[in-house]
């Protein structure tokens, strides 16, 4: 059974419940950032202090121009960039008091442009996702079921025996998402997961993420996708958090002009009832 408190917010159908049954042990985590800053330099702060709480089961999208600090912030959240100031709490525990393995048992990541791994097949790549939670050597029947379920969910089951290295960019991306799902994380962090994906797969992947019974934090360049699927959108500019609110509050013409330097026509999408955008430049 999927966590019943989440079924209400995630709008899961019975069919979804069956598709995500392998996620049943997931305990969506809350993440609290208190004054978190980061920089690789002594004399200059790249990520300016950010205070925000990500609620258990929430879908948070991070948007912002190139170089605004989205990846740097995500790297803090998956325990790669150690904050130079402030604390990050995962369900109330300091992220840096957890071991890398404890972290991997709760947080999965999908990063940009992952390379191949020594000629592994697609099935073997996804199998790696099981490692943090494996208690024994060898693959159980349940493990095989989890791998097969995630391959089907990401529409890559037909590629299971193919070498990962031989896949297209979009196919690789979907396999890496399948691998993260096989990890059955409590928090899933994705850096630009729609890169390389055609429009159908972009929508499929975001719809899938929005239904997963875990906390989702994802960086996106496409404001329309962030608007359509996120519970809240966090806007970054020059290393600073400019806003964090639901799409219909966060996306105003003025803010988009200030942050992205483009003009926007915003109306309501007739199907999703979320903000819809047309961009132009007023030179
Ligand atoms: N380890 C580092 N050393 C020096 N500068 C860094 C480091 N990591 C990030 N930066 C710089 O910090 C800024 C923010 O980078 P970051 O990758 O977080 O931006 P981003 O919003 O993810 O950008 P993009 O949309 O282009 O992917 C950039 O100017 C980048 O060059």
Automatic annotation (TrEMBL):
Q: Does the keyword Nucleotide-binding apply?
A: yes
Task: Kindly name one Pfam family recorded for this protein.
Answer: ABC_tran
Q: Which PROSITE patterns match?
A: ABC_TRANSPORTER_1, ABC_TRANSPORTER_2
Which keywords, in A-to-Z order, does the entry hold?
ATP-binding, Nucleotide-binding, Transport
Matching InterPro entries: AAA+_ATPase (IPR003593), ABC_transporter-like_ATP-bd (IPR003439), ABC_transporter-like_CS (IPR017871), P-loop_NTPase (IPR027417)
Q: What sequence ranges are listed for the domain ABC transporter?
A: 31-263
Supply one GO molecular-function term.
ATP hydrolysis activity
Keyword match Hydrolase: no
- Tell me the protein family, please: Belongs to the ABC transporter superfamily.
PANTHER family membership = ABC TRANSPORTER ATP-BINDING PROTEIN, HEMIN IMPORT ATP-BINDING PROTEIN HMUV
Name of the protein described by the UniProt record: ABC transporter ATP-binding protein
């Amino acid at each position: 059974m999927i966590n019943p408190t989440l079924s209400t917010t995630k709008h899961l159908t019975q069919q979804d419940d069956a598709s995500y049954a392998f996620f049943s042990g997931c305990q969506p985590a809350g993440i609290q950032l208190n004054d978190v800053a980061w920089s690789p330099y002594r004399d200059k702060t790249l990520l300016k202090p950010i205070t925000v709480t990500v609620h258990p089961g929430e879908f948070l999208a991070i948007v912002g121009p190139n170089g605004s600090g989205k990846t740097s912030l995500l790297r803090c959240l998956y325990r790669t960039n150690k904050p130079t100031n402030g604390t990050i709490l995962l369900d109330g525990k300091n992220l840096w008091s957890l071991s890398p393995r404890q972290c991997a048992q709760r947080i999965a990541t999908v990063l940009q442009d992952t390379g191949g791994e020594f000629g592994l097949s697609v099935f073997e790549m996804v199998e790696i996702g099981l490692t943090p939670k494996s208690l024994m050597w060898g693959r159980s029947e349940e493990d095989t079921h989890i791998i097969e379920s995630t391959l089907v969910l990401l529409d890559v089951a037909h590629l299971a025996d193919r070498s990962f290295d031989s896949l297209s960019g979009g196919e690789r991306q979907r396999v890496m998402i399948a691998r993260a799902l096989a990890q059955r994380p409590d928090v899933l962090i994705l850096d630009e997961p729609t890169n390389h994906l055609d429009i159908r797969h972009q929508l499929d992947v975001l719809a899938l993420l929005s239904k997963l019974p875990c906390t989702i934090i994802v960086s996106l360049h496409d404001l329309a996708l962030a608007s359509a699927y996120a519970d809240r959108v966090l806007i970054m500019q020059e290393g600073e958090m400019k806003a964090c609110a639901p799409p219909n509050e966060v996306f105003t013409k003025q803010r988009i002009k200030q942050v992205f330097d483009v003009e926007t026509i915003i109306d309501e999408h007739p199907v999703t009832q979320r903000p819809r955008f047309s961009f132009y430049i007023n030179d």
